[in-house]
Amino acid sequence: IPLTFVAGIYGMNFDPSVSKLNMPELTWPFGYIFAWGIMILIIIAMVTYFKKKKWI
Predict the structure, then answer these.
(1) How many independent structural domains does the chain possess?
(2) What's 28's DSSP letter?
(3) Through-space distance between the first and last CA atoms of the chain, rounded to whole angstroms
(4) Whole-prediction pTM
(5) Could you tell me the sign of the dihedral formed by the alpha carbons of 9, 14, 16, 20, in that order?
(6) pLDDT tens digits for 5-18?
């Protein structure tokens, strides 16, 4: 569910010319890499949690 939420947010259309506050990553030079990094960290955290619970 967490990655679905992140993908849902990034699937929306944002216009940075309307407001700089709607999604600041669009104006950051490394915004795309930052988003991927967050998603990878979520995956690592979930896999670690699942392994500790012995679900995988």
Answers:
(1) 1
(2) S
(3) 17
(4) 0.66
(5) negative
(6) 878 877 777 777 77
